[in-house]
Fold this sequence. Notes:
It contains ten helices and eleven strands. By secondary structure, it is α+β, with helices and mostly antiparallel strands.
Amino acid sequence: MKSIKIKIPATIANLVCGFDILGMAINEPYDEMELRITQIPDIIIRHTDHFGLPEEASKNVAGVVLKKILEHLNLKNGFEVIIHKNIKPGSGLGSSAASAAGAAFAANVLLGNILSRDEVIHFAMFGEELASGVRHADNIAPCIYGGIALVKSSNPIDIIPLNTPDLFVAAVHPQVEVKTSDARQILKKNIMMKDAVTQWGNIAGLIAGIEKNDLSLIGRSLNDVIVEPVRSILIPEFDTIKRKSLELGALGGGISGSGPSIFMITEKKETADEIVRMMKSVYDKIEVESFGYVSDINPTGITIIEHNH
Ligand code: HSE
């Protein structure tokens, strides 16, 4: 029976100033997914973790993606999916994107790479739509491409893979609930021209810094005057953690995706280790449980662990 097992990286969307248009894949944490084609026109999903995600195909991020692919190709087959999730749902580290992108990627390989990479992204976005109500590709694109990806447009899909600078990431996930849909709802519908000018200066600076491997320019550009001031209110101790991270030598950072995780980028791994210790101790002090991650950038995106033809 045709089957595949893949490894799927976590992703950090927005990269501070690039709301909905920038994302980066990291090596830790990651999910694994096994997919098998079956002769019965049914999608059977099983999780090996304890997050309690729905297993009914129409309510599952991977399930809706697979359904859409089968419908599009007019196939009478089905799929069996086993998801080993380590990227915590609701963390802001691209957990739903990992399931969505993983399902689309794995199904495409099993079907003989019948879909283009842009089509894989198109189908994966149905999973993001189920999870947050919006078809955004800033987690999905880096998850599939690896490294840092620019979503120049998600309709039509126009993805620009960028350079992968030699950087480390420190991230903390405090155990507070921030739903992506709520974190989008609270954003202002209109912005001031002066803020827009600051923001596009930062986005352009960030992309130039990434392409030139100019770490100082990357650091100077990691500023968000539009989304972070609104969303950071939902994350306890956000300002303290950001200030202390910069004091410890972070180049910059902010909210990971729609939160509640906070990420910082550093030049050295030791700095990232020290920042994660600080982040966790800030949350320990206010008795909020937290999980810390230190990672480098994942340059490859989803990889195949096993493939039985
Ligand atoms: N760009 C999206 C947002 C990412 O910030 O709402 C959500 O994971």
